[in-house]
Amino acid sequence: MRKMGGIVESCAIKEKDLVKQTNAQNFLKLLNTMGNSLVSRVAEENRTQQQRSTKIVLPKMEDINKLYKHINTVIERCSAELNNSFNMKMWLRLSKATLVQIMLFNRKRPGDVEKSQLSEYETLETISKDATLFDETQTQMARQFGRYITRGKLNSPAPLLVSELNMNAITLLLKYRNKAKVSRDNPYLFAQPPGTSRKFLSANISLKEFCKEVELQNKNITATKLRKHLATVTGTLKKDDIQMVSDFMGHSIDIHNKIYNQRAIVKEICEVGPLLLTAVGDINAPCSSQMVSDVLVDTESVSDVMEIDTVGDVMIQETCSSKQRKNDKLSSPELSETCEIVNTPSQSDDGCEDDPPYQPDLSIILECDSNTEDEEGHSIATRRERVS
């Protein structure tokens, strides 16, 4: 809207139409002062409404497993044929299969994998077989996978785990790269053969092609849904483990829990639901006694809570325990153990007016017969009043 207003103003200046120019300038002023909040609010409401009404269907584990195994089979067949002789069709299919499998296994964004460069893959690291690891699982994983780091979203590092099968496939892709007529100036690992404007293969398009080749219950599998699937199945892990998964996926822990993790309905129904039933007094609620004791508070056991009671203009301030904070302002320590009641000079506890305050007569003679000392050593004068 602001751009359109600027165009109208420019046209009015060229046409020397002062009325049209003034109207355009007034429109831009109103848009800058009042339009931004109004348009932003409407757009935000529409966006949130669309998000609430959109139902997210995550792919099932069976479909993911079928797709993963199918891509493995494709890589093995294409690699076997390319080991015998070069075939352009097999080379391109092998490149797409390797690209999709790395993205599917690592649950990365499409751009993190498809924009991988040759220089980044050359920094591939593996764990030495002689390294001392904690258990057999880690030893097995160290033998099967390597890792290289590519550029992720907002220039963040995006680690990619590559299996031994993928390493062998990439070796074949690099071997026949010249025969596939890929330009030497093309820096991308999964390079696109000449004939298109793109320099690298599209991970999204390749994923859709392989989903059509397999009999899946839901063929609409995308990279975002795969990422949400991983965040959901790992939602019951410990906090440190969830932090590790979110760091590997390339987003913050808040985004991981609020956007990608789809277990909100499980928590709200299965965990919050029993608490709500218990709160309304349902004795048959499936809520443990420990959970009830942590949530429900016995108000009768709270006896030292600060109370403020107003009756007329009378205010009872604090409790005896809180009064101890003012010991330094009191001359006698015995007063710190009592509660202070402050009455206004106009009314008493029963709401009736008191007698006017006592006004001493000037004829009063104060005499100090003797001096005494309190427990703290302060001098206290004992006064006697004699009325003449």
TrEMBL record:
Gene3D superfamilies: Intergrase catalytic core (1.10.443.10)
Residue segments, region Disordered: 322-388
Gene Ontology biological process terms, A to Z: DNA integration; DNA recombination
Keywords recorded for this protein, A-Z: DNA recombination
SUPFAM superfamilies, alphabetized: DNA breaking-rejoining enzymes (SSF56349)
Molecular function as annotated in GO: DNA binding
Protein name per Swiss-Prot or TrEMBL: Uncharacterized protein
Record organism: Photinus pyralis (Common eastern firefly)
